[in-house]
Amino acid sequence: MQDRIDALLRDAVAKGVARGIAVTAGHSQGVLVEAAAGERAAGQPMAPDTVVWIASMTKAITTVAALQQVEAGRLSLDGPVADVLPELAHPKVLVGFAAEGGEPMLRPARKPITLRHLLNHTAGFGYDFFNAQIGAYMSARGVPGIITCQRAALETPLMAEPGETWEYGIGIDFAGLAVEKVTGQRLDAVLQERVLGPLGMADTAFRLGPAQRARLSAMHARAPDGALAEIPFEVPQEPEFHMGGGGLYGTVRDYLRFCRMWLNGGTLDGARILAPETVREAMRDQIAPLEVPPIKSALPASSHDIELFPGMRKGWGLSFLINDEDVPGGRAAGSLAWAGLANTYYWIDPKRDRAGVFATQQLPFADPRVLDTFAAFEQAVYAG
């Protein structure tokens, strides 16, 4: 397995798939493989402890913090989340624009938003890079992008009635704010105290410390001719709010520990993070008969169109993609997975007791060549 994966990564870097790639895989009892190839920056080798922006892989970690508060009775999955976050008491649904480039037209939502809606992406919130209407609203109202970590970035309307459509968006950023409200702590402190610290994820944080910055990967962008170049990028280090939907930095090594906690039913190395019944609920498809549709890009510089496992129904848990069928040569049906905008990916397979994490640092998301390499990595893990 090690030889096959080493060769796979070296070949991918040589062919220009990525500037650098780091991977790891394991099972409930430990690590099976770690590997890396290429560079994180000029003259700096990529490694399993290279620090990367994990972006939306943050969502599952913030979800754990929210579920801990559900276990403690401070949050409710199905009560109105406005009981905790008054700013969500009167959400509006975008129904169109008065004219092209004109004033947005809004109506009051008929249903309350719940924490479950926020965690399974059925609240109606979206992202401008996947929904052009949100982008048009943001332009009309001067709303900043979410990666600015300004509270004003959350002032976008719903795209649909709560509970009626799966729309990938900023819901888990609000879930992070709900955690802050009921704990009286900033999200970074909650995660460190109750999730990251107990799991031994020492390199995962919103703020880069000197040790993490010394191992930080540069961000890269693929030009139209296919070449990759370094670009300036950093999540704000003094944010107005901690972006629970995408603000964390970390390593593949750290994230595998998070994945292994799920394989162990909510515990790792003696640290109980979630109760077994909470783990079972989180792993359950929350959105049927809805399903995760193909996601179309509205900002090609940020993301390609996305359709993972074409032809297969995909559900969503709290908060993971769930594949309904076995993947040939890879994960079993009912596995959990998601990704981050800078082409970082993971899967958790409870049936076959396997998990894997794969990281590059490049845009746009869902790079077809990166996805092919990720699939080959997954197949190598199972073949081994």
From TrEMBL:
This is Beta-lactamase family protein. Residues 5-379 form the Beta-lactamase-related domain. PANTHER family: BETA-LACTAMASE FAMILY PROTEIN (AFU_ORTHOLOGUE AFUA_5G07500), BETA-LACTAMASE-RELATED. Pfam families: Beta-lactamase (PF00144). It comes from the Bacteria.
